[in-house]
Amino acid sequence: MAEATGELNADGEQEEAYFYRERIKCAPDEEDRLERQHFWKVIDAFRYYRIHVHERVNRSERQFRFLPEHHQMLLPNFLPNLAKIRHCVDHNQEVLQAIVLNCIHMFENMEYGEDDDLRKVQPSSTFDMDKLKSTIKQFVRDWSETGKPERDTCYQPLIDEILRIFPRDKCDASKVSILVPGAGLGRLAWEIARLGYACQGNEWSFFMLFSSNFVLNRCEEVNSMILYPWIHQFSNNRRSSDQMRPVTFPDIKPQSLPPNSDFSMVAGDFKEVYTEPNTWDCVTTCFFIDTAHNVIDYIETIWNILKPGGVWINLGPLLYHFENMANELSVELSYEDVKAVILKYGFQMEVERESVPTTYTENEKSMLKYLYDCVFFVARKPAHLFSNGFQTANRCQFEESEQNETNDDMT
Ligand SMILES: C[S@@+](CC[C@H](N)C(=O)[O-])C[C@H]1O[C@@H](n2cnc3c(N)ncnc32)[C@H](O)[C@@H]1O
Questions:
Q1: The pTM is what?
Q2: Tell me, which GO biological process terms does this entry list (predicted)?
């Protein structure tokens, strides 16, 4: 890839570089305008958070005051608890402000205009507020001690497989290129780079990109930051204090990668950014493939960008993200069908576990928990796609066999 890592920022410090790869869909000017609009919409969401959550707390207070007085008297701690919740929300807002501070200079090849402190923050949609709340919980999964058990079940199987397929005592890890699409807050990609592999995370959401930039480049001391990730959960709390539990991050110094590590993050839509064929030794996807409108697009992209002999390692469920969104294409395939497509592209399934229980941003104290029964697999793009040093097939095997069938029909 053309991206350099470890660019210097304005302060002369070493920073992981972020690059914005454009999506060209309509006229470039219009595309830029929409891009800027989206960028500011996400910044607004970070700034609107406090107002939004305070409104929710105010609603609880109104409902409480509506109760008969003798019922209110039974709960002397209710209003003081709401005051504590407001305090936690205010703290979260401070962290969110810090996250978006200077974000306009985050991407080295994209300008978003000047930030204006006097610009009135626009109210955000519930949809964007939900995304922001999920992003806050993602800090727990990726960068807190609390998230370690979850990382052990989700990330460790992928890392173990990388270590098995590309053993560091038998190959030069720095020459093994690994891509992590849908990298979230970057911990998996960071861990892979920490082991010495050349690893790039790719992420599309500004919510995630602003936050990963913050943790990777701005958080220097272990557990120096506090968030209240469960503060928005008003149901299923066993104790009132559970809602106000703080989580500290980062559990490890993000700048502690060994010298000469090759780690980068690239912003943009996975299938639009990664078009260069035969580039990667390994693509690692975690809770990612169900973010596609059409999962076959992802399979095709992974097939194309893997070098012959390269591997795709996947862990995740099939909770199709666009399933319930109006006016959005969404093709919901069963794992059986996804696997059939993978095989038809020519991948060889080398490892497959159909039932790997995991959680995703779990609140361990909640009275409601979700368990994902994930699929895990390692699929290889066969090495024999090269013959006499030339690539002979960079397309689906089924295309070829269909062609053969057609030829047979004609004879
Ligand atoms: C369910 S999250 C998983 C994040 C991370 N892999 C983890 O396991 O914690 C899916 C991630 O994929 C990102 N994503 C969705 N569509 C994408 C696309 N087309 N290109 C790149 N990233 C995408 C989302 O923004 C989100 O961060």
A1: 0.89
A2: carnosine metabolic process; methylation
Which DSSP string corresponds to 167-234? -TTTS-GGG-EEEEES-TTSHHHHHHHHTT-EEEEEE--HHHHHHHHHHHHH--STT-EEE-TTTT--
pLDDT in tens, 276-297: 999 999 999 999 999 999 999 9
What's the chain's Rg over C-alpha atoms?
Answer: 23
Q: 250 preceded by cis ω (within 30°)?
A: yes
Distance 400 CA to ligand 1 centre (A): 32
Q: CA-CA distance, 137 to 255, in Å (whole number)?
A: 22
Contact (Cβ atoms closer than 8 angstroms) between residue 267 and residue 204: yes
Q: Is the CB of 315 under 6 A from ligand 1?
A: no
Q: What is the pLDDT of residues 389-411, one digit of tens each?
A: 334 343 434 444 444 443 444 33
Q: Is the CB of 202 under 6 A from ligand 1?
A: yes
Q: What share of residues in the chain are helix, strand, coil (percent, to 5)?
A: 45, 20, 40
